[in-house]
Every structure is written in structure tokens, then in C-alpha cells.
Amino acid sequence: MLIVMKADATEHQIKAVVRVIEDLGYKPHAMPGATRTAIGITGNQGSVDPSHFETLPGVAEAIRVSKPYKLITLDLRPEKTIVRVGDAAIGGDELTIIAGPCAIESRNQGFAVAEAVHRSGARFFRGGAFKPRTSPYAFQGLGEEGLRILAEIRDAYGLKIVTEALDEAGVDLVERYADVIQIGARSMQNFSLLRRVGRSALPVLLKRGLSATLDEWLLAAEYIMAEGNYQVVLCERGIRTFAQHTRNTLDLAAIPAVRRISHLPVIVDPSHGTGKNFMVTPLARAGVAVGADGLIVEVHDQPDHALSDGAQALTLEQYEQLVSEVRAIHEVIAPATVS
Ligand code: PEP
Ligand code: MN
Question: Which residues span the domain enclosing 225?
Fold first, then answer.
């Protein structure tokens, strides 16, 4: 059930609807928009009787939701969500660039990359402290020490920190040091983890699962939002296919497909999406051209010595060039994506 309030509904009338939803034992999700507020309802098992709401003052419509989505959908919020991270944003007019190494390996490495990321004008720095590696014998990240280095980088450069949490204990730690919690592809359907970040005050960057359909990915976002955290950014990072020339197949058609359904910002990861250094810049260009709100890109000061994902890491010079190219593309297509 979705309650659409009239354009001139008062705060008091909205609160009254929220109270009725709570009294029925359900959870209200009020989404103020440019022209009207809509209130989503979750927590109901069967269908909700619209007659509870239809006669309440300020209510324009009580609509039965037939789609699997209640909160990510444009029906609830026709305008794009802008995820605000302090004085930076994802989903606004500006192209968001999140860059940094796959993993934080040392203070020197982190700072060498961060300096270049800062110089490029990007507002977000990425770097894993907890790494979901295929092999248990591969470098697993520096853990809390990595988070401390990330926090130092934030203090030194004013960059917002994006880093992955692998489990619920990891979320407690990441919340102490970072600005955005990344949920990795391998965790996209870890439902208790999704619920946990849904109760976080930090925005969540939700990567698409290794072989997730659009529905599965959007329903994962729905898990987070159903707990009350509406600050979710979707990230297309490629899916497993039969293709062997790339690490993953970057599904750029997912960007316009998401746009048609959801108000959430969506960004592209051309690094994991290709796995190969020489493909990252071309696919980054394409990601921006297809209308993504931003990019998340892996950069290393010494890719040949990287402890994880070196083959897809851009050098500092390549990264600088990428930024200037994608900014130019964004300038050209921005008016089209805004309309
Ligand atoms: C990463 O960002 O380094 C990462 C592990 O990404 P993904 O979850 O998309 O594989
Ligand atoms: Mn990586």
C-alpha cells in the first residue's frame, strides 16, 4: 500500500496518516517529494485495506502496490534521490567519482593514492580494510588498522571514505571510521547484513551480486530501505557470464533499466566490471555516457605490486586522464539525464 498525500497536505495531516499506519502494527516510510509526500507501508503480511486511509484529511490516494518493490520505486518517489554525504553528494547534478585502491595495504600506499584522488577533484576515496577474497590464503585486508589509515586520509584531504563491511561486526567498526558502507557483490544477499546496514545512520553503496538479476538487486536495496535507511546507492559491477575476455560482463543496460524503476542513484564500477586495466577507461567512459550518477574506480600507485586486484588497477596517471575524459562526457550528456 502506498499513500499519496495531496500537494497541499500539512505536516500535521502526514503525521496523522503515519500514526494510523503504526497503530495498525505496520511501518510507515514517509518520502517527501518536490510536489507531494508519499508514504510507503511495510511490515504487512497480507494486503492492507485502503479504507483505513482514503477518508483521512490530506490523503489524495491509497494505492495497492502490485509490484515487488515498495520503497525503491518511482511510484513512491518520482524524483531522483540524492544521497548526501556531508558536503558531498551522489545522485545530484555532479558526476560522483569514488577512487582508490582495492585494499589499503599500508599508510604510504593509501596516502600516495589519496593525494592523486584529491588532486583530481574527486570527493570520495575507496579502499578495502576487510577484503572478501576468493582464497582464504590471499591478503584479507588490514582490518581495523586499515580503517584507521582511511580515517587519517579523510582528515588530511577531506575525502569521504567508502569501505566494505563483510559482516555485522564489521559494520560496527566501519561506522566508527567511514562515511559510506560498501556492501560487496558477494554479500548482496546476506540478508542479516542488509538489515543491519538498514539500521545504520551511514549511506550504503550496494553492489550488484555476482549473478544477480535486476529484481534480486533491487530487492536487496529494498531490505535496507525497509529498515529505515533510505540513503542507498546502487552499483553495477558486472555479472558472471560465459564471456572469458573479461573478469565480469559489465551490464551497462542495467543503468537505464534501473532508472525506469527506481529513484535511487546508480553508479558503475568499470574496474571489477572488466578486471583488466586497458578496459577500465573505455568502460568508464561508456558508464558515464549511459547515464550513471558516478563511477567507482580502483587506482594504485604501484599496480604491479598490488596485494589485490592489481590487474585492473589504474596508475595515478591513467586515473588522472580518466577523470578529465569522463567529466567531459558528463558535461555533454548531463542535460539529457536531468530531464
Ligand atoms: C571491491 O570493491 O574491491 C570489491 C571486492 O568489489 P565487488 O564486491 O564488486 O567484487
Ligand atoms: Mn577490488
Answer: 83-338
